[in-house]
Every structure is written in structure tokens, then in C-alpha cells.
Amino acid sequence: MYPAGTPLHHDYTTENVELVTKGCANMERHVQNLRKYGVPVVVAINQFASDSAAEMEAVKQAALAAGASAAVVCNHHGLGGAGATGLAEAVVEACSSPDRAFRFLYEVDLPIKDKIEIIAKEMYHAAGVEYSPEAEAQIEKYTKMGFANLPICMAKTQYSFSHDATKKGAPSGFILPIRDVRASVGAGFLYPLAGTIMTMPGLPTRPCFYDIDLDPETGKIVGLS
User: Fold this and answer.
1) 124: which residues sit within 8 A by CB, 6+ positions away?
2) Cα distance between residue 41 and residue 99, in whole Å
């Protein structure tokens, strides 16, 4: 990791098709994963000033080879809406494509472990799943309480397909450690914790936003400390 304010390495500001192609492994995995849901995939390629035509073409060809129905170079950050018309057209075409047969990744009434392992193997390409004693106990408890038919929402680092943020690209063949399993029964899902991961803090019984309002006479926000 580089400290804030560090200039970008020259590899990221000069043409390097080989490096770009290597980095496409992560995108390719995402495209392949999305295709498992039976829907067409459109890839938006955000072009920056230092990106060359050859680099953009490398990303486009990698996306199409992975199964994307379209891959469009976009410049909306610089040109506004005009820079994304091609993307919009590709999305409209994908929405009307006959190549649409949405399906879920798993049947929701499967046992909890089966659903976790389908996600681990199909989405993350893990070789298997390892459960801590705490996770085993929670799975048993939720099953007895009748919550086994809830869908799964994995709590995992966003920086890697694995549980380890340092494993970049498209890692495969690792063992996914589940250290705990928790329930959001009101929202209607179970969330296993994979590796070291922090979860969002819960709201109090009476959230503070009840005390925040807009004064219609002055237009000022009241209730903020």
C-alpha cells in the first residue's frame, strides 16, 4: 500500500498492455460469475487520460472472451452523459436480448452449509470451506430455530475473491474459513463471516435520524450535533 499523496507508479501512467491484460483476470472472473445467473453482462471500461487505445482494446477483448455481451469504452467522468451513450445503448440492447433466463445460484431451502459451499466454490473458486467451532454451533442453532431456509449474505473482504485481502487477481483452490455465522432475521438472511472482517454496527432501538429534520422556513437542517 502507498501512503496518501504518493504519485502513481509509471506503470499506471504509461502504456503497458501486458500489465493491463494480466489485471483483467479479476474482471474475467466477475463476468463468468455473473453469467451463472443467466443474464447478459455489459462491461463499462472507464477511460482516463493516460489510457491508450491498445489498453482499452485489450480490456474489451478480455471481457468479450470471458462471456460479456458487450464491452464499451466510457468517458462520462469527463464528458458527462455524452460520454456514456454507447454504454446506455449496450445496456438497452442487453435488456431486450433473448439471451436472458435468470436463475438463482442455489435453491434457498438447501441446508445452510450447502449454500455457503456453493457460494465459496462457484463464486470464489475455493477448494472447500472450513468452519470454526463457533460457526458450527451457530449453524446448528439456526437450523433448529427454523432459519435454515434464509438466503446467505457473505461477509468477506472486498479486496479479493478469497478471504485474504492480499490475494489479488483471481485466486483459486484456497480453503475459505468461516469463523462465525450470524442472523439478520428481520431483514431475512444469514451472514457468515469469512476470515478477519468487521461488520457494520447495528442501529439503536431509536435511530438518531428521528431527531434530524429540515426547517421549512429557513431551509436549515436541525438536530445535527
Assistant:
1) 161, 162, 176
2) 10
Distances (CA, A) of 182 to 21, 153, 156, 162, 187: 39, 10, 13, 20, 12
Least confident span in 95-109, 135-149, 205-219: 205-219
What radius of gyration, in Å, describes the C-alpha atoms of the chain? 22
Contact 75/118 with Cβ under 8 angstroms?
A: no
pLDDT reading at 1 higher than 60: no
What CA–CA distances, in Å, run from 119 to 127, 144, 194, 214?
Answer: 11, 22, 12, 44
pTM for the predicted model, two decimal places: 0.81
Q: What is the pLDDT of residues 161-186, one digit of tens each?
A: 999 999 999 999 999 999 999 999 99
Looking at the domain assignment, is residue 100 inside a domain?
A: no
What's the pLDDT score for residue 202? 66
Specify if 209 maps to a domain.
yes
Name the residue range of residue 23's domain. Answer: 10-95
